[in-house]
Amino acid sequence: MWSENRIPVQSAAENRPLKRHHTARYYAHRVKESLTTRVSKLICAIFLGLLFFVGIITFILWLSLRPHRPRIHIQDFSIPALAQGAGFENALIIYNATARNSNQNIGVYYDTMQVTVFYQDLIIGGSPVLFSFFQEPKNTTIIAGQLSGATLTVTSQRWQQFMADRARGEVVFRLEITATIRFKISTWDSKRHRMHANCPVGVGPDGLLLPSYRVKKCPVYFN
Length: 223
Ligand SMILES: *[C@@H]1O[C@H](CO)[C@@H](O)[C@H](O)[C@H]1NC(C)=O
Ligand SMILES: *[C@@H]1O[C@H](CO)[C@@H](O)[C@H](O)[C@H]1NC(C)=O
Prior knowledge:
Blueprint: H1 2-15, H2 17-65, E1 71-78, H3 80-84, E2 92-101, E3 106-119, E4 122-128, E5 133-135, E6 139-148, H4 156-167, E7 171-185, E8 188-189, E9 193-203, E10 216-218, E11 220-222
The chain binds 2-acetamido-2-deoxy-beta-D-glucopyranose (NAG) (2 copies).
C-alpha cells in the first residue's frame, strides 16, 4: 500500500523533474534579483534625490548671486556749435550718462572707462574717463564730461555732413562707453570683464538731444 502509494508520486516527479528543478532555481534567482533591484533602485533614488537637492540649492544661490549687468542710460548729449552754425573748430560735445548698479548685494569696480563718439561708425571723438571707482549696490554714478579740441577729430568734410543731416532735422551719433569692471560678491572679486554700452543719440537743429533719445537705456554687452 505504502509503496503503491509512492509510485504515482515518483512517476509524477519523473514526469517533470527538469521543470521542478528549474522552477526552484528560478524562484531563488528571482528573489535575489528583486533584492538587488530594490537596493539599486533605492541607491538610485537617494542619488537622484541628492542631485535634485544640490541642483535646487545651486539654482537658488545662482539666482541670488547672479550679477546683473550695469544699467547705462543716456541723460544728455549736445553739440552747441551745431545750433550756431559755427565751424567745426569750435565744436564741443557735452555728454551725460548714468551707470546704475541694480544688484542687491553685489558691488562693481570700474577700473577703467572710455567714452567714444561715433558718426556713421567712424570715430569722431573720445577720451578716457579719468576716474576709477567702486559702486555700491543700488547706486547710480553720473558719467559726464566734454569732448573738444584734441579729443575731437572732426574734419570740415564731416562737419558738412553734420550740417546736411541737421537740415533734415536730425544728426545721429553713437556714444559708446567701454569699461573694465569687476564684480564684488561679499569678499570675493570676480575677474575683469570688458563692458560695452552703445547709446544712439540724435541731436536736433538746436544742437540739443532730441526728446525721443532722452533717458534711454543703452544696450550693454560683454566680451
Ligand atoms: C547729468 O544728468 C543727471 C540726471 O539727469 C543730473 O542729475 C546731473 O546733474 C547731470 N550732470 C551734469 C554734469 O550735467
Ligand atoms: C552712492 O555712493 C556714494 C559714495 O560711494 C554715496 O555717497 C551715495 O550716498 C550713494 N548713493 C546711494 C543712493 O546709495
